[in-house]
Write a structure and sequence with these properties.
Blueprint (H helix, E strand, L loop, with lengths): L3 H18 L3 H14 L6 E5 L5 H8 L5 E6 L2 H13 L5 E5 L12 E7 L8 H11 E12 L5 H13 L9 H5 L6 H11 L1 E14 L2 H12 L12 H18 L4 E13 L3
This protein binds S-adenosylmethionine.
């Protein structure tokens, strides 16, 4: 199988525009909650790491009329979408650059605010990404993270387990989590990691979106963030059959509970870099 970093590049190359359409009013609510918790004064210099098509970056720029926001992402295609949207909104205090979160080019302590939304699940080494975020943050500066909590898309992970059971030879020694390539986080553990780096976390909360959804809609949404790469261990002639296995399992899970829900359970943490 491809490395996580290669998978991520491939996914967002394929799904960049669809991903942008996933930024629903509920996601906007998560961005708004994060910005409200950060409570910017309006003059800060901010960085959005793994900014994607700019959903959070643009809103942050609006709340910093006398400051500036830099959005970075490993994928040039999503940056193009973000730049176009910033242009449409006439935002001049924003710029986008291609960068790897694992080795940022910025000097130590160069930002008053650093945010990152749903990037951590996709980096092969989240600890290193967090260390980079901490490095470029000024002392007394604030960090705001949104990431996938351990229950994120639980139903789909269950459906994937079924796929693994149906095709044991093809998926030998592969776990459902590895198939998606994204990691999910436990709030307490993530907070501990941040505290070990020297951040003091003053807010940690969940903000979930629970959408009643049909199995077809569920798969379409999942495919926007995975580009169906989880089917790759199977030969293409088996993909249709595998899609039916997933759909049937999702239908069964919907019948077993009250209804099928796409649970996007996000974990939000806000903290300050302690002064030495
Ligand atoms: C799920 S999207 C989130 C986008 C945006 N932050 C949002 O919340 O809508 C994950 C983003 O992380 C980016 N990404 C993944 N690995 C990265 C890395 N090593 N360095 C920078 N960006 C990365 C992907 O290209 C993608 O745009």
């Amino acid at each position: 199988m491809k490395s996580v970093a290669e998978q991520v590049k491939e996914i967002y190359r394929i799904t960049a525009h669809d991903y942008d359409r996933l930024i629903t009013p509920c996601r906007v609510g998560q961005f708004a909650a994060l910005i409200a918790e950060l409570n910017p004064k309006g003059k800060e210099r901010a960085l959005d790491v793994g900014c994607g098509p700019g959903g959070l970056t643009l809103r942050l720029a609006q709340s910093l009329p006398h400051g500036e926001v830099v959005g970075v992402d490993i994928n040039e295609k999503v940056l193009g979408i973000a730049r176009a949207k910033a242009g449409e909104e006439g935002l001049e205090n924003i710029s986008f650059h291609q960068e790897d979160a694992l080795s940022l080019s910025f000097a130590d302590e160069s930002f008053d605010l650093v945010v990152s939304s749903f990037m951590l699940p996709w980096v092969p080494d989240p600890d290193r990404a967090l260390a980079e975020i901490h490095r470029v943050l000024k002392e007394g500066g604030k960090i705001g993270l949104i990431t996938a909590e351990s229950r994120f898309y639980d139903f789909f992970y269950e459906a994937l387990e079924e796929l693994l059971l149906c095709y044991p030879k093809h998926f030998e020694k592969i776990k459902a989590d590895e198939l998606i390539g994204a990691q999910r986080f436990d709030g307490r553990e993530l907070q501990k990691k941040l505290e070990e780096l020297g951040l003091s976390i003053h807010r940690r909360f969940h903000l979930s979106i629970e959408d009643p959804i049909t199995p077809e809609q569920y798969l379409r949404r999942i495919n926007t963030i995975t580009a169906e790469l989880y089917l790759k261990p199977l030969p293409p002639c088996m993909w249709e059959e595998a899609r039916s296995v997933l759909k049937n399992k999702l239908e069964e899970l919907g019948r077993a509970g009250t209804e099928l829900l796409a649970v996007e359970c996000s974990l939000i943490l806000v903290g300050i870099k302690e002064r030495r």
